[in-house]
Structures are given as structure tokens and as C-alpha cells.
Design brief:
alpha/beta; 12 strands; globular; about 325 residues; six-stranded mixed beta sheet; D-Maltodextrin-Binding Protein, domain 2
Length: about 325
């Protein structure tokens, strides 16, 4: 049986993460402006921003978001920009940040590293009502590679070891298909982020890469949102120059996360602020979400248990290799 067909067996593994379509959430009022009592314990709100794109672009997307939080609660905001996912994970473990928007795998890593001192409270709801996205494997359009089978012995750019779409999910799908991802590819490496992996594939440093996409909308435009669309909008990628050769099953979107040991009043205010943001400041919301979505809906740790399991399996695989 060809590997591509066998790899579709990954769907049962991932299907429990897919959310059923939900109604568009009602508009929520933005919290009343003013300094809160919790500011005595949190004099500065430190927000982690995952790596994966260059610093200037991250600041461009999150700058107005941070300023609006400052204006709403009268508390300074510091945007903590890490060079990779592990920087935000370790910042949570060291209690150096209060909040972040995380990938599902990065959340799992932060939960493990902080001994459970992170709490997911909202998850992105896509334009079709789901709360899931997909991983995609892409190659150059002129590479001659048209299937996953043809990647045997070729080079693969992983995005980040704490990325679901850019590492954990593709590897889990290969293993479920009975293929060892450490021997299937001729060469692998971490590109330092999703955007960097795309650039590396276009520059012929690797034959393929993996990244995330909403999985809805026009593929030729990079879908409704995701790293392909974001990179195309920056002018770093023309979608005609790549070919998608594999898609995962649905993956639960990454959560908005708050440090569990922060005051409950702070958590309540952050929940209210983010529920209101899509309608109160749609351009800011679109910028931080990198595309078109409905908004956020509640989530919980149990929605990400599979990623904790995957992280532990990867750790076990590393121990066996060493």
C-alpha cells in the first residue's frame, strides 16, 4: 500500500480534536476601562509571542493589541518575543510571563515544564465554525515531487520541535503509517520557525517543509489563514511556486493561555477582553490571528491531552536514539 494512502490512517488519531461547527458567538462588550485591584500583584502584563517569523512582523501584528490592553486596564504591557517556541515555554515555567497565544504542542510543553501552571481559556473559532486547523507538507512546484512516497530519502525542514503542525503531527502520522520518520527522510533539520522553513525550501536548502493552515478557503491563496497565507501576504512566497503533497487530519487550534497562579480577577478580565476583541477591534483581532476567523470560544486542558502524549512519545524516541 502506498505510503500516502497509509498515512491517511492518521485521521482516527486526529479526529477527536476536530470541533463540530458552532454558531457565531454573540458580541461581547469590552471591559470597562480602569486600573484593577489585581495590578498590585501584576504591575506589568507580560505577554509571550511565539517565534516563527521575524521580530518586526511580530511587533507589527501585536503592537496595537498590547496598547489596547494597556489602555483598557491601565497596566503596562510588555511583549516577550522569543526566537523559538521553547523561549515562551521556558518563560511560563520560570513565571516570567502571564499570558500567551500558543500552538497546541507548545501549550503541552509549557504545561509539562511548568508542572501544570498554565491554563488554556479560549481557542480560535475558524470561519467555518470549527476550532481546528491542518498540517500541510509542501515542496517547490518545480521539484518533480508530487506525493509523500517520493519524499523517501529527501530532505525535510521541520519548523520547531515544539510545533504541532511543523513537527509532532507529521511525525506521528508517519509512525502511525508504520514508517520511521528518522530513517524515511535522507536529511532533516530545524529551520528555526515556520516562515524560515518556507524560505529554506524556496531557496533549495530542503526539499520539503511542514506548516499550518486553516484548511478552508482557496489553497491557491494560502487558505483563509495560516503561515502560507501570511508569508504570501508579505511577498516572500508566491503560492504558484509550491505544491502541497500531504495534509493531516484536523488538529485542535492552539489556545490562549494564562498562568494558572495569577489572580482569578485577572483571568476574568483577560477572558472578557478577548471575547470582546473580535467585534470591538476587528483589525487588531485579525492581525493577531493572521487571517479571517470568527472569534474565540472556551477551551480546557483536556482538549490538549493528546499533545502531552505526543510530547512524551517524542521524548521517549529521543532517549531510544541516544
Amino acid at each position: 500500500m502506498p505510503l500516502l494512502r497509509r498515512s491517511l490512517l492518521a485521521a482516527p488519531l486526529l479526529a477527536p480534536l476536530a470541533a463540530t461547527a458552532q454558531q457565531r458567538p454573540a458580541a461581547h462588550p469590552m471591559p470597562e476601562r480602569g486600573r484593577r485591584a489585581w495590578a498590585a500583584q501584576i504591575p506589568q502584563i507580560r505577554i509571550g509571542i511565539l517565534g516563527g517569523e521575524n521580530e518586526a512582523d511580530r511587533m507589527g501584528r501585536y503592537g496595537a493589541y498590547g496598547r489596547l490592553i494597556e489602555e483598557t486596564f491601565g497596566v503596562p504591557v510588555r511583549l516577550f518575543q522569543a526566537s523559538d517556541y521553547s523561549g515562551v515555554v521556558q518563560a511560563f515555567a520560570g513565571r516570567h510571563i502571564e499570558m500567551a497565544s500558543m500552538s497546541p504542542a507548545a501549550y503541552a510543553a509549557a504545561w509539562v515544564e511548568s508542572n501544570g501552571n498554565v491554563e488554556p481559556f479560549l481557542v480560535t473559532q475558524e470561519a467555518d465554525g470549527s476550532t481546528s486547523y491542518i498540517a500541510v507538507m509542501y515542496v517547490r512546484a518545480d521539484s518533480g515531487i508530487t506525493s509523500l512516497d517520493q519524499m523517501r530519502g529527501r530532505s525535510m525542514a521541520w519548523a520547531d520541535p515544539n510545533s504541532a503542525s511543523g513537527f509532532l503531527i507529521p511525525r506521528a502520522a508517519l509512525r502511525q503509517a508504520g514508517v520511521n520518520p528518522d530513517s524515511f527522510f535522507g536529511r532533516t533539520g530545524f529551520a528555526g520557525g515556520h516562515e524560515q522553513a518556507i524560505v529554506a525550501v524556496l531557496g533549495r536548502q530542503f526539499d520539503a517543509g511542514v506548516t499550518w493552515a486553516s484548511g478552508i478557503g482557496e489553497e491557491s491563496q494560502g487558505f483563509t489563514r495560516g503561515m502560507l497565507r501570511a508569508t504570501a501576504e508579505k511577498g516572500l512566497l508566491n503560492m504558484r511556486d509550491i505544491r502541497i503533497i500531504w495534509r493531516s487530519g484536523p488538529i485542535q487550534n492552539g489556545p490562549l493561555v494564562v498562568r494558572k497562579d495569577t489572580p482569578q480577577a485577572f483571568k476574568d478580565d483577560m477572558l472578557a477582553f478577548h471575547l470582546a476583541l473580535p467585534t470591538a477591534a476587528p483589525e487588531i483581532h485579525r492581525a493577531v490571528e493572521r487571517g479571517t476567523v470568527i472569534g474565540w470560544v472556551p477551551t480546557k486542558h483536556e482538549d490538549y491531552e493528546l499533545f502531552v502524549q505526543m510530547r512524551r512519545e517524542e521524548a521517549e524516541q529521543r532517549r531510544r536514539r541516544n
